[in-house]
Amino acid sequence: MPSQPAPPPRLVRPAPADPELGLLLRDAVEQLFAAPDAASVMEIFETVVAECGVAGRMVWRLPEDGGDERTPCIDLAEDPQGLRTLSLQLTADEPDEATLDLLAWFGRLGTVRLRQQSETTRLYEAISRLALAERLQRALYAIAEQAGAEHDMTEMMRSLHTIVGSLMYAENFYIVLYDEATDTVRFPYYVDTVDTDPPSPDESTPLQEIEHSLTWNLLKGGQPLMGSIDELAQQLRGRFRLVGPHCEHWLGVPLNRDGRVVGGIVMQSYRPDTHYTQHDRELLGYVAQHVQSALERRQAHAELERRVADRTAALREANRVLRQQVLQRQRGERLQAALFRIAELASASESLDNFYAAVHRVIGGLIYARNFYIALLDDETQQLTFPYSVDEIDSVRPPRRHGRGATEYVLRHGKPLLAGPEDIDRLVALGEITQFGARSVCWLGVPLLLGERVMGVLAVQSYSPEHTYNERDQELLTFVSYHVANALQRKHNAESLKQAYASLERRVTERTRALALANRDLREQIAERERVERRLKYETLHDSLTGLPNRTLLLQRLEGALQRYQANPQELFAVLFIDLDRFKVINDSVGHLIGDDLLFQVGGRIRACLKTRDVVARLGGDEFAVLLEGISDFTKATLIAERIITELQAPFRLGAKEIFTSASIGIALPSPHYQRAEELLRDADAAMYNAKDQGRHRAALFDDRLRREALSLLEMEGDLRRALARNEFVPFYQPIVALADGRIVGYEALLRWNHPDRGLLAPGEFLVVAEESGCAESIDWQIFEQAFAQTPQLVGSEGFVSINVSGRHFRSPDLDARLLALLRRHEVPPHSIRIEVTERALLDNPAQVKRILEHLQHNGVGIALDDFGTGYSSLSYLHQYPFETLKVDRSFITELPHVGENQAVAVVRAIQVLADSLRMKVIAEGIEEESQRAALLAVGCRYGQGFLFAEPRPASAWLPAAAS
Question: Whole-structure pTM over 0.70, yes or no?
Answer without folding.
Answer: no
